[in-house]
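Hi Y.,

Following your request, here is the sequence exactly as I used it, all 103 residues.
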Amino acid sequence: MLNSKKRFSIRPRVMPSKRTARELLDEAEVEHASIKSLVEQLETMRADDELVDAKVKVLSEYVKHHVKEEEDELFPKVKKSALDLEALGEEMAERKSELMAEM
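Below is the corresponding structure, written out as tokens. Let me know if you'd prefer a different format.
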């Protein structure tokens, strides 16, 4: 049997998340900015520059973490909300088209 200190330290990792949608959205905003910053840094670097490999690895970890968080926590909250998901999807598709046209 685990001692009480051990149980306490692992319990938050196995308990369901109690974070609110607002907290998740705030974190997502920070994560998006961090990812964008790393991409911008990498775009100015050469493959043999110092720290390129480290930045690519960190970028990969950030993206994987972010996607997992959205799929496991944010999307289920959005599905349960009163949002018109079809209208939201249409807005997102329109915005994507606008952004792609700017490229």
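Residues 88 and 94 are 10 Å apart (CA to CA).

Thanks again,
Q.
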